[in-house]
Amino acid sequence: MGITSNRAGPGVTQVTIDFPPVNAPPVQGWFDLASAITAAGDDPETRVVILRAEGKGFCAGVDIKEMQRATGHDALIGANRGCAAAFGAVYDCAVPVIAAVQGFCLGGGIGLVGNSDIVIAAQDAYFGLPEVDRGALGAATHLARLVPQHLMRTLYYTARNIDAAQLHHHGSVYEVVSRDKLDKAARALADEIAAKDTRVIRRAKEAINGIDPQPVHRSYRYEQGFTFELNLTGASDEARDAFINGAKNA
What we know:
- The chain has 250 residues and is of the alpha/beta class.
- The protein has a single domain (2-181, 195-249), classed as 2-enoyl-CoA Hydratase, Chain A, domain 1 (Alpha-Beta Complex), CATH 3.90.226.10.
- It is built from 11 helices and 9 strands.
- The chain has helices at 27-42, 64-69, 74-92, 108-114, 140-143, 149-158, 164-170, 182-194, 198-210, 216-233, 235-249, and strands spanning 2-9, 12-18, 48-53, 97-101, 104-106, 118-122, 126-128, 161-163, 175-177.
- The strands form 2 sheets. The protein has a 6-stranded mixed beta sheet, sandwiched between helices. A 3-stranded mixed beta sheet has the order 5-7-8.
- A hairpin with a 2-residue loop joins strand 1 (2-9) and strand 2 (12-18).
- Helix 3 (74-92) runs parallel beside helix 4 (108-114).
- The protein is globular, with a radius of gyration of 17 Å.
- GO terms for molecular function: enoyl-CoA hydratase activity; isomerase activity.
- Belongs to the enoyl-CoA hydratase/isomerase family.
- It holds the Pfam family ECH_1.
- Keywords: Lyase.
């Protein structure tokens, strides 16, 4: 369990998220994910990274229970910095990152997928930001990379989800496959990229990031500032407590 890396084939490194039951990594898990992705990109033998997950869903975001168990603001600060590190590692990875998504992709999962280079999704995959229902803000930066502006705002304000087929329609999901073919589809695309001259692909990644109109690091940190403000008002604790109590009673 946790974050693991393995060589999935020539030039392909696979990084796997595995935090049962819902892949909501604790604070350290986000930093471990950032380290694994950065290390993969820094490895000259790696030409492509596949980011995947075990279990029924890709990622449910941060571990809210860890945050509510903690005293003070260390867990909140840790989660925010950990997410920023992991999202940034995906974006800054020296080689292309393919996200292979099944089931739920929520909260922090959107940050990972939104910063990936390519997204392949299972037919059962769905994506959303429940942040406003949890007393937090963040990852609108990354949702805006997946859907048009007005749709992003609708999804953000309502905390509704959008499925893989809809994202495929918008062009942000490259391919939708049955769940049993997800890893195979991600690997096939990774192998195609890995067969190319890695010197060119690495420069291509750097060049594409360099012309990106959205400053993803800065805009996400800007969003996080409002989450801290909501925590100071008490709104965030109330929302998180309501979520945890609701989960217990479900």
